[in-house]
Every structure is written in C-alpha cells, then in structure tokens.
Amino acid sequence: MSQTIPDLQITTDLSRMDLDRVHDWLARKSYWAGRMPRAVFDRALRGSLCFGAINLEATVAFARVISDRATFAYVSDVFVDPAHRGVGIGKAVMAAVVAHPELQDLRLWVLATADAHGLYARYGFSPLAVPQRYMERRDAEVYARMADAAEAGRDTRCTH
Questions:
Q1: pTM of the predicted structure, to 2 decimals
Q2: Which member of 77, 98, 130, 155 lies 3.0 to 4.6 Å from 64 by CB, making a disulfide possible if both were Cys?
Q3: How far apart are CA 13 and CA 15, in angstroms?
Q4: Which pLDDT belongs to residue 160?
C-alpha cells in the first residue's frame, strides 16, 4: 500500500492488472505507442517486468521494465490514467520500480520521456552523460502499418 495514497497497491502480478485498459491507454492515449496492436502489447508484456498501480481494484497506472536483471534496465510505457494524475501515483510506481529486488545493483538504467523529466530525476535519472555514444534504430510507423494491414485483412505478425 502507498504511504501517501490510501488503498493504492503496486503489483507486478499481471493477473491483478486490467491489461485491456492498459493496452487502450498505450494504443490510444500515449504519444509513443499509438495504435500498438494488442498482439505486440501481449508479446512485450512477456519479455518485461510490469508494474501496475491498483486503487480500489481498478488499474490506475502502469510501467514496464525491460531488463536482463543483472546489468541493464530500460523503463518504458509509464502511464497514469489521466483521471488519477497529480496525486503521486507516478511517484509511487517509480519508487516501486527502482526498489524492486530483481532490479538492484544494475550498472545502467535508461528511459525516454518528452514531458516527465522532473519525475524521473527524483529517482536518479539524468540526461545521457555521453549521448554521442547512443544510437537507435527507429520505425515510427510500424504500429500504424500493422493496424492498417490488420484492418485490410493482411497478417503482418512476426512468427518467430
């Protein structure tokens, strides 16, 4: 239970989270995962340590950590239901993330954000120390192509 929000529980138990609701947030309301197909979301969950904030049995926030649990972690898909923002739920989720026993003594944590730098700074995150060492391979339209293909009846799922 959160010390600041009565009845708030942070869990890594996927069976307690409303994953339909989380998928809807990410696919329809986030700026980074627009139109993410449900099959992609489900596959992402299987490869991640997921955190859900539950308040009175309702899922009110979510975060996902992709990690080898030994050296590296990438924090992703942090989302607080707009109706529950501004009361410390994001802070409670991030506190649980950085305190999780399987994520201790990692050499490097990274994340990307457009608008929550202040939140993440509270938990030790800062701009990249040496950004010129980082590279990315990005396909910003992949989910839109997959959704369009699904609507047209074409299967674009990865089979491996």
A1: 0.87
A2: 77
A3: 5
A4: 45
